[in-house]
Amino acid sequence: MQKIWLVAAFSLLGMSWLAAAHAETPTVVPDDRVLGKADAPIAIFEYFSLTCPHCAEFSAETFPKLKEEWLDTGKAKLVYRDYPLDRNALQAAVLARCAPPERYPAFVEVLFKSQNDWGRMTDPTEGLKRIARLGGIGDEKFAECMADKSLQDSILASRFKAQNDYGVDSTPTFFINGKRLVGALPYDEFAKALGESSTALPPPGDTRFAAQPPRPHP
């Protein structure tokens, strides 16, 4: 069922599953949700699905110390990238994107913590609606978000770009200043990769990983 849903979504976007992965790495774009200081020298791109158990594991076990020691200190910034693996994950991603940009990380955290509830539902609408209410999104706004086809398409387009251009084929997948890491790594291993990246930073004037102000979705 999951594969059928993904193939259908791919066809609707007019893309080909046969496109080859290129040796490219992601860069920050205006619509990105970014946690951390804009001028942080290390950019961590995380491709995740909100129904992915390993992503939830990373959020619960690795992320808190990562945030404390790298994001809050200005040494790194985290760029969130949706990579929905199923319809439930897409709906959850839409909900998080409907929140104001500054509240996006909190929505992602709550969605991961409650993944075993809404994520296993045949129709997660009611479960997601409860989370929306707790986050200050009323029922009318929630309904508008769930019906926003352009937002759904933009999330799916980003997911397929990651697959075709960056070779992402599982979650979570990270790019740390261009270096790829896969899986819910323990903090010590993740911090080691960050330390190695900090010794190989791009030269001054390289703006590939510079954060730009996000554009809230209307």
Describe the model.
The protein is α+β, with helices and mostly antiparallel strands and 218 residues long. It has a single domain, classed as 3-Layer(aba) Sandwich (Glutaredoxin), CATH 3.40.30. It has helices at 2-12, 53-61, 63-71, 87-98, 104-113, 115-118, 125-134, 139-146, 149-166, 187-198, and strands at 33-35, 42-48, 76-82, 173-176, 179-182. The chain has a five-stranded mixed beta sheet. Residues 10-22 have low confidence and may be disordered.
Keywords, separated by commas or semicolons:
globular, 10 helices, alpha+beta, 5-stranded mixed β-sheet, 218 residues, Glutaredoxin, 5 strands
Summarize the structure.
The chain is an alpha+beta fold and 218 residues long.
- Count of helices? 10
Helix coverage percent:
40-55%
Task: Report the span from N to C terminus.
Answer: 32 Å
CATH topology: Glutaredoxin
Structural domain tally: 1
The computed structural class is alpha+beta
Which blocks of ≥5 consecutive residues have pLDDT under 50?
A: 10-22
Number of strands: 5
- Regarding quaternary structure, what we see is single chain
Largest sheet: 5 strands, mixed
Q: Which architecture does the CATH hierarchy give at level 2?
A: 3-Layer(aba) Sandwich
Order of helices and strands: HEEHHEHHHHHHEEH
Strand line-up across the major sheet: 1-3-2-4-5
Tell me the CATH superfamily: Glutaredoxin
Coarse shape: globular
CATH class wording: Alpha Beta
The chain-level mean pLDDT equals 86
Layout of helices and strands:
Elements: H1 2-12, E1 33-35, E2 42-48, H2 53-61, H3 63-71, E3 76-82, H4 87-98, H5 104-113, H6 115-118, H7 125-134, H8 139-146, H9 149-166, E4 173-176, E5 179-182, H10 187-198
Parallel strand pairs: 2-3
Antiparallel strand pairs: 1-3, 2-4, 4-5
Helix pairs in contact: 4-5, 4-9
